Amino acid sequence: MTPMLDTLTWQFRMTWSLAEHYLLHLTDELCAWMPAPSASTMRLGHGGWTPDWSDDEIYPPPPVSIAWSTWHIQWWWTSALAAARGEAVPERDTVVWPVTVAGISAELVRLAEAWRATIANLTDDDLERSVTYPWPEPRPLRMMVAWVNSELMKNTAEIGDVVRLFHAQEVAS
Question: Diameter of the chain by CA atoms?
């Protein structure tokens, strides 16, 4: 394993271990809890569960529920895996959210294992191959791998924030 790939793999394992910690303690109630009335979440509609989504950048971004964060991880990770494998990136609305904590955990563990296997087989040449996900302009795959690690850490931190707020409001009541 090259030093670059060794570093990216180590970073992923460290980040995923924190995500796994939160997955072990999630409940359906916690996933559905809204940290604020304006929070983005998953909503049941005519076509199933859909995320609150705007193509416009909103500042500051709205708070998010754990349901939304878990769907978001599933969406970008499914897309990153497709891009890393040279496959077509799925449309956002084709990624089906599993709804229950058991389903969410199983899907995220499946994605983590697929990601681990994908990056374990990369070569130096692979890391320099151009990809256009998640950016419109081509960048080396190594940048996307680093982005996945960063995005996973960001989403895990968001989940951790919601967990702390949920338990703080329980104590306050």
Answer: 56
> In the numeric block, which tokens belong to residue 138?
């081509």
pLDDT for the residue 47:
83
Distances (CA, A) of 9 to 33, 90, 157, 166: 33, 25, 19, 32
Total number of domains in the chain: 1
Residues 163, 30 contacting (CB under 8 angstroms): yes
Residue 54, domain extent? 3-172
Structure tokens given for 55:
């193509």
Q: What is the DSSP letter of 137?
A: S
Q: Closest by alpha carbon to 111, among 4, 16, 11?
A: 16
Looking at 23-149, which runs of residues are DSSP E strands?
42-45, 48-51, 130-131, 139-140
pLDDT digits (tens, 9 = 90+) for 32-63: 999 999 999 999 988 899 999 988 888 898 99
The residue type at 36: A
